[in-house]
């Protein structure tokens, strides 16, 4: 019986959403105090999620949930994909935060690359891994939509101001957290994994 789950992320946007998604399950949700700075060396969401979950499990010895997620744009050959969080400096690397903040820098770069593209379809994807003492579980969730011409809305995080989910006339950043969690890649992946755990 799993009563406590450590959620291996230091991203505040993700933490808020994961807490709210897991509220309906009878588990205590814990967050690590330290950032283990696990290298996301792989070009696979699943492997990155697995590496994060394993690294935190080995330190805390508590069932550990990690997720790796990103935005996939087919007309950009799948970019930003696994590079979503550091897309703005993919070519030149470096650790310096851009003046306008990472999220804005990522959005500006994506909009620049999308200029003149007819096909603006995109999807968010999340892979979740639950690392347990005697094994593990994984799941995938997707949320389909399109890339807007300019940012709209203040909610969410990351690319949400330029992502319009299918069936909505609003950006993801204009949805309440509850609305977003119902349709999001993260909501789907986490509910699936919790269902499997049951
Ligand atoms: P990572 O999983 O920590 O490598 O980061 C995933 C990155 O993908 C985030 O930093 C965001 O840029 C983007 N991303 C993932 N999920 C979302 C979301 O729900 N909204 C907006 N951006 C997201």
Unreliable stretches covering 5 or more consecutive residues: none
Order of helices and strands: EHEHEHEEEHH
Supply the helix-strand structural class. Answer: alpha/beta
What count of helical segments does DSSP give?
5
End-to-end C-alpha gap: 9 Å
CATH architecture heading: Alpha-Beta Complex
State the domain count: 1
Observed structural traits:
198 residues; alpha/beta; Maf protein; six-stranded mixed β-sheet; 6 strands; 22% strand; globular; binds inosinic acid
Report on the architecture of this protein.
The protein is an alpha/beta fold. The chain has a single domain (4-197), classed as Maf protein (Alpha-Beta Complex). Helix content is 30%, strand content 22%. The chain has helices at 12-22, 45-60, 102-114, 177-183, 185-197, and strands at residues 4-7, 28-30, 64-72, 121-132, 135-147, 163-165. Strands 2-1-3-4-5-6 form a 6-stranded mixed β-sheet. A hairpin with a 2-residue loop joins strand 4 (121-132) and strand 5 (135-147). Helix 1 (12-22) crosses helix 5 and helix 4 crosses helix 5 (185-197). The chain starts with a strand and ends with a helix. The site of inosinic acid has 17 residues, from strand 3.
């Amino acid at each position: 019986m799993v009563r406590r789950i450590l959620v291996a992320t230091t991203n505040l946007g993700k933490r808020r959403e994961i807490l709210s998604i897991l509220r309906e399950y009878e588990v205590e949700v814990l967050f690590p105090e330290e950032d283990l700075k696990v290298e996301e060396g792989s070009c696979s969401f699943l492997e990155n999620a697995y590496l994060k979950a394993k690294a935190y499990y080995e330190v805390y010895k508590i069932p550990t949930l990690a997720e790796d997620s990103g935005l996939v744009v087919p007309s950009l050959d799948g970019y930003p994909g696994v590079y979503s969080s550091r897309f703005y400096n993919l070519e030149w690397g470096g650790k310096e935060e851009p003046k306008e903040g990472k999220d804005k820098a990522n959005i500006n770069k994506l909009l620049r690359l999308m200029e003149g593209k007819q096909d603006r379809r995109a999807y968010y994807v999340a892979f979740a891994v639950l690392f347990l003492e005697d094994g593990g579980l994984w799941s995938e969730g997707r949320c389909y939509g399109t890339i807007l011409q300019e940012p709209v809305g203040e909610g969410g995080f990351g690319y949400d101001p330029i992502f319009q989910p299918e069936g909505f006339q609003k950006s993801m950043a204009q949805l309440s957290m509850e609305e977003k969690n119902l349709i999001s890649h993260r909501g789907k992946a986490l509910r699936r994994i919790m269902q499997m755990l049951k």
